[in-house]
Design a protein that fits this description.
homodimer, alpha+beta, Nucleoside Triphosphate Pyrophosphohydrolase, Arc Repressor Mutant, subunit A, seven-stranded mixed sheet, two-stranded antiparallel sheet, 6 helices, elongated, DNA-binding
Chain lengths: 229, 229
Amino acid sequence: MSVAYEHPRPALTVDCVVFGLDEEDLKVLLIRRELEPFRGRWALPGGFVRVDEALDDAARRELAEETGLSGVFLEQLYTFGALGRDPRERVVSVAYCALVKLGDHRVKAATDAREAAWFSVDDTPALAFDHEEIFAMALERLKGKVRYRPIGFELLPPKFTLSQLQRLYEKILDRPLDKRNFRKKALGTGLLVELDEVEQDVAHRAARLYRFDRRKYERLERDGFSFEI
Amino acid sequence: MSVAYEHPRPALTVDCVVFGLDEEDLKVLLIRRELEPFRGRWALPGGFVRVDEALDDAARRELAEETGLSGVFLEQLYTFGALGRDPRERVVSVAYCALVKLGDHRVKAATDAREAAWFSVDDTPALAFDHEEIFAMALERLKGKVRYRPIGFELLPPKFTLSQLQRLYEKILDRPLDKRNFRKKALGTGLLVELDEVEQDVAHRAARLYRFDRRKYERLERDGFSFEI
DNA sequence: GAGGCTTAGTGTGTACCTTACACCATGTCA
DNA sequence: TGACATGGTGTAAGGTACACACTAAGCCTC
């Protein structure tokens, strides 16, 4: 198929910055480029927006095609449109941010036909295009957002301990938090449900498990509640 | 000039939501469309992005062409890419937000060859395309942003009184603020310079004039200061 | 089974920030 | 000169943010 326009127009792409949390690290999902330019370099998953496809759908589709991830909550981050950011031609890219529970997605990404892999956010390879700039902005946004939205809960398994939650926030914010104050605040949101279970198979006192009260969160969010951590 | 591509691609536009402040109201700058679709309807100023033009430049250029405003601080807001938002063809629009001192710009906009006018934000006409959605998001963003960034200063003349500043914040936030607390905070930022002048020609005690210390603001902003109001 | 190791779990005091609140000062105008 | 309109000022109380250290529980090993 070929098509003609009166004036040249920029190409439009989407790129996704997908964060996941490991026992150890906050990670970001990258793919290795199979084509020029930047063939063999790591890059954010993404690609061209089809003319009959909404931006969000394009982001979800590209993410699924390139990494196998689906059902991910994607949020628009920023649109990058500097001249020369793609050596081939003028390309404007709408960047999206996503958060996933790493445990749910580790295998899929690793076994997909295309090479996709999780990298610790403070040990990423050189990226294609201006993707380092996009990634840096996404990480900044994540750090800001995590302070007033309980998005951290999205990154944990359904049942988790308060220490896991705290470690998660420490990884994202990249600084230590006080245990007592953290627990006070986390429980103070009223969004955690204490379960009648504790951790299994740990070589020390087992911690109580909690789950996130998603319904309550949605109710409060609708009513404009705030959630500083 | 005509150009062919292998695949059809969305058209790319920019739209600008420009806020200004009046003695009375927070206003938004609209233009009346001269062409189909939505001919005669009011709309946000904006237009097509040229293939050799950065997004920010396109927004500044369109704003200047359509309303005569230049030298405006523009900030990217969000990118709107739903299907069917333009009846002609697929158009993706990068929306920008701008803040201007209304006094400086009132005449230019009104006397420009194209019809452009300021509307009170709570009395806008029906808008073309999905511009009402864009406008609503911009207003939300403005309300949020004004709380932790001293952007309010951009909306006043170079010399202003604390009452004017307070009224501005009250208009934007759409709620009354306590005078003493407001003055404490505003002066507490250290960003206001007290001048040796007072208002002229008022039928009551004249208020002291202040100016915004832009240099200090830029210095603090670079160092990651915060400015809750 | 005792002692040590590891992580879980808990409360208080202080400093600061937020908010509520009322009166006198100054200039204009009639 | 008195009334009117807005300018300009401080304090007290309550709440929030933060710093800080010890005991509890379970497992392991010796």
